Amino acid sequence: MHFTDAYLEGLLVDDCPYDDLTTEGLGIGDTEGVVEAAPKAPGIVAGLDAACRLFELRGARVERLAKDGDAVEAGQVILRACGRASELHAVYKTAQNVLEYASGVANRAADMVRAAKAENPRAQVALTRKHFPGTKPIVYAAVRAAGGIVHRYGLSDSVLVFDQHRVFCASPDAAVARLKESAPERKIAVEVDSIEEGLRYAAAGADIIQCERFAPETVAEFRRVLSEKHPNVVINVAGGVTAQNAAEYARAGADVLVTSWPYFGKPFDVKMRFSCPNPGACK
Amino acid sequence: MHFTDAYLEGLLVDDCPYDDLTTEGLGIGDTEGVVEAAPKAPGIVAGLDAACRLFELRGARVERLAKDGDAVEAGQVILRACGRASELHAVYKTAQNVLEYASGVANRAADMVRAAKAENPRAQVALTRKHFPGTKPIVYAAVRAAGGIVHRYGLSDSVLVFDQHRVFCASPDAAVARLKESAPERKIAVEVDSIEEGLRYAAAGADIIQCERFAPETVAEFRRVLSEKHPNVVINVAGGVTAQNAAEYARAGADVLVTSWPYFGKPFDVKMRFSCPNPGACK
Q: What is the ipTM metric for this complex?
């Protein structure tokens, strides 16, 4: 996951489009100082590439003391930036927000990955397109840090048939054959509401059956039938998949746990500690 | 709160940079249909301007059946878009995400506004800069729909002295005088950790004292002392202010409840119901 400078500049300009009235008004802009980022609780960190680059973009010198996906202790310094107060203040809140939101998503996703892989090491946790609009780079960094995967980057990289498509189709059963012809290099995924529907689309040649709001025991039953008839078809589970039921779904035989749950919750607190060896300004 | 087309186009292109492989592959792109947005539970809606414009940008015709801040019933249709399947599918998930995240923030903020204003109709709930990075337009639409205010758009519109500034100052007590000189058209706000510190900065001429993590009873005590000595100084409370304690803080005499709490939580579910009078394609 790469953060472009254009994206990161956008975040900085969002927060400080012109002058930083407080820092400049105090006359402290040129005073040198240090800011250290340290999580308040143990956990996984994410967003470090972005946070480091944000400081660099305004001219601060950065020491990166951890990398995305590292499990760190409470109070462990993960990033240190040195520079003028004007540089540090133009960046620190944005960097903190990126670290806190990315790490919050990463910790919740990592809980799901751990739970699922304890039952089946090949099971994957895939995060959806249902993130806060405009936050893909941060969300994808979090997914990677957690050991998860991206379900779909968007509509142009993958094929997934929903009811919202079938409503337009005179013969929904013809859908898979059409898609296999139009997109022979893509796997064809179909979301279904029942075992019967899933078996019908698997028989029609779907590569992935996405089970919408199946109970874990229904997934297990589907797995048994599907493994006999269509052993290569991938089973996704979607709808209400959380850290609480991830183990159950993995045990039931789901290959991919599709979830938006890690997006909803608190940021992971990261304290930004300032120090200044020679406070000289604002006398 | 205005959403620029450039911003909304960015959201659409994020989700569909090139082709919609599924809709186009199915051959349903030109088939006409309807999508209706309806919340699953009663509550306040937000993000409607953006959602409507998103559909228009791809050529769909839109009926707006509610406006931001309206309290709606479960199942009440708030937006109807008519057009070709290609247009509706290019937009509906992004529109749904905007509506759900904006309305989620709006409902939590509205809970705080109601709680605070029941105690003091002049109290304001002000949302902070600690939102998911890159989401200002959606967040601000939510704040307005809830009857709240924006604490600071960023560093260029307001003056607020934190400890992170004072660490650079040889004489922090000189801060207010300097800022009053450099920014005579702005109110000067200072965040403090104690009543004593608050009184010192109020005496120095601060217009706003932001009480960081004061208990409600400490705010009440501060209010008493401050009203005697500096009756025109505004009291902000910040740090841990939620819907649960908003009434207490308003009752204690806080003028402004500064909070990030509405940002953390679940989106407000909005169902997107598709229909197609003449399913003709994908035979």
A: 0.95
